[in-house]
Amino acid sequence: MNNSSTHLGEIVAFGTTLSWSLGIFPFTEAARRLGPNAVNHFRLVLAVVFLTIISTLFLPVSLVELFTSPQTEHWIYFGLSGVVGLALGDYFGFTSFAIFGARVGSIFSTLAPAAALITAYFVIGERINLIGIIGITITIAGVIWLTMSRRSQSEMKDHEHGNVKLGVVFGVLSAVCQGVGVVLANKGFTYKQAEGDLAFFHATWLRMISATVIIYLITISRGKLKEITQPVLDNKNKGIIYTLGGTIFGPVIGVSLSMYAVSLLQDKPSIAQTIFSLVPVFVLPLSYLFYKEKITARAILGASIAIIGVMILIWREQLVQLF
Prior knowledge:
Helices cover 79% and strands 0% of the residues. It is mainly α. It has one domain. Helix 1 (3-34) runs antiparallel to helix 12 and helix 1 (3-34) crosses helix 13.
């Protein structure tokens, strides 16, 4: 892989992080109004509809070709990635955001690069030098410093949206699912079509349709379909508009960009996931814009440390030559 593709992948990964950060705010509000499970189900359906329209118009492929043109391996790995990263991971994430809010809840994403690195070691044999590992560690440390101030900790208390212990467990599980999901998607991109690479929009659609089918099958088998759909049908607390906004920035734009980044960084999924984990850094100024939350010197320092860590990770090959 040449350097230009790598750097483009890193730029796209930053765009992914920005889009996801914007999506967190409407999703947090939606989860508190409709409930995390209802939001998770409804936004998957919305995302499938949007991505089907986009794919058939711009790839272009027919509706039948969306199902038939990918190889079996594409369905397996992108499907598993969708189930793990979107159906399970985002449900855990929505619950955590509903309990802690966008700024504090986003801290758990810092665990995802470690999960991606460990999974990639076993699944695709990814190796990363010591300087790269130092960069990942610095990034995680910076984000933790950013989010775990005394003020943030004081906000972590039980309230009507759920129990703090449950929020912590689900936040950790969400991060693990994110990391594993990225690696599985990376594996899917290693299989080439006869006519070339699978388009990243098509890969995103595969993840979404797989996650949607599995999560609804599970819900129906448990007899919970009415319980999940009723808040949406009632537009409980006017939560649909927030779900729509979050879906556009999250599953549609954000996940599509993430698949593009992963396709460009095919042998380096942990790097993509490390950049994705900068969500709390992006959330910081957005929290000020949306909620007028004060930006402290500690927060600025934490964000700076996290960004330095990512820069070390990106330039690890050049840095190793200096030693």
